[in-house]
From TrEMBL:
It holds the Pfam family p450. This is Flavonoid-6-hydroxylase. It is found in: Membrane. GO terms for molecular function: metal ion binding; monooxygenase activity. Its main location: membrane.
Amino acid sequence: MDSVLWFCISFSLAIFLWFKFKSKNGASNKLLPPGPPAWPLIGNIFDVGMMPYRNLHKLGDKYGPVLWLKLGMSNTLVIQSAKAAEELFKKHDLPFSDRRVVDSLTACDFDKGSMIFGCYGEYWRMTRKLCSSELFVHKKISASAPSRQSCIDIMIQCIKKDVNVNGGGSGEIEFDKYLTLMTFNLISNYVISRDIIMDSKSDKGNEFIEAMNNFMKWNGIPNLVDSFPFLKWVDPQGIRRNTQKYLSKLINIVDGFVKERVHEKLLGKEKEPKDLLYALLEHQGKGEEEELSEENVTIIVLEMFLAGTETTSSTIQWGMSELLRNPDSLQKLKDELDQVIGRSRNVEESDLNKLPYLQAVVKETMRLYPSLPLLLPRNAREDTKFMGYFIPKNTMVIVNAWAIHRDPNSWDDPLSFKPDRFINSKIDSKGQNFELIPFGSGRRSCIGMFLGEKMVSLTLARLVQTFDWKLPDNVPPESMDMRERMGLSLHRLVPLTAIPIERKI
């Protein structure tokens, strides 16, 4: 009890002294963006709550699209309109190009080797250029299409098999299980050219997924340390300790794959195709100013799994949810697939550009359910004048894509699922139409956006082409539970279940 009392006293005293210092040395005489009054010590933490993208959206209705908050000790700028996002990404991308690294990702020095979460600088530029030029280009993405097709084929066969075992073709399935395994295998094939789950040489698949899920769970919890950095030494919620536990497991598994590839390379046994791991290892020893160590290679490979698996599977699940809730849209997509592709062969990646309604369904899904509703926080590298306001150095910058995608100034009937809004529309999700930015924009946009869109599109197309779908227990579509939960990405609160019935050729 005494230790708890002393902790509370120390906590209160430290915050009091910090605010006293800031009031004398801060930017109080500068024009800051509007925002709600901040409570002493804790600032606006209660205003943000457990569903920050929703609560920030509500605050925007009162204070406007450029919002100022104090989250404990952290100055925070929130962008919530397409116009403000365009101003940020087009005119102020460089001064806001740093990442705000959360405390948990400093475990195992993950942030120092990361491309996605690392700070802007020479190392980031080198790794971004390497990944962009060597792998995440249209030519190489297209060349790897057969591998993705195979992963989806395996998922479809697993669904068929499980349905037959569980009820003669009328069994109920839970999408999350199949989509997670499929996207995980798809990423592993693209990054390290092996199917970890089913590879006879490795029994690490289940261990990897379990550790990854626990890593995601702990990093989806709001951390007091990020608002009150002096608590770092205490780690009061145990978030960094648990992150380190599971991150160490993940790093050890991936390090095994890296060392195995290095050994194959030394023996001259390395095989085609040339994947991301190959490109990273080839870059070693080229005398670049910023060295790419084996530890950094391991972290970059690992973060491709972390970034691609959960975001892709959750987006597909939201897309299927809306199609089941909107039978007319589901039928329209089915008709397009039947007319353009037919039932005598499977839809392929090369067909996607011939399927405008499918593309519209994917865009509308990403509009309503951006996998990262607040994108990834940025950090101001310097004092900056933004839209007439003073933004101090080290301000955290949040872009609320969820709010921008539901802004009535940009979208008619923004809360409804209406894929037709994208038919004959030039709006895309590549980061230049700022009313639709599921992958972000500018220097720190998602490097895998083209691959991610193909994965979502092809998987949805195959699921709709192969099966007719019914909701279980005669649940009316309009009664579906569409509530979400927030972690590192946007998930359904209740996993989606449905009954697949194989369509006859």
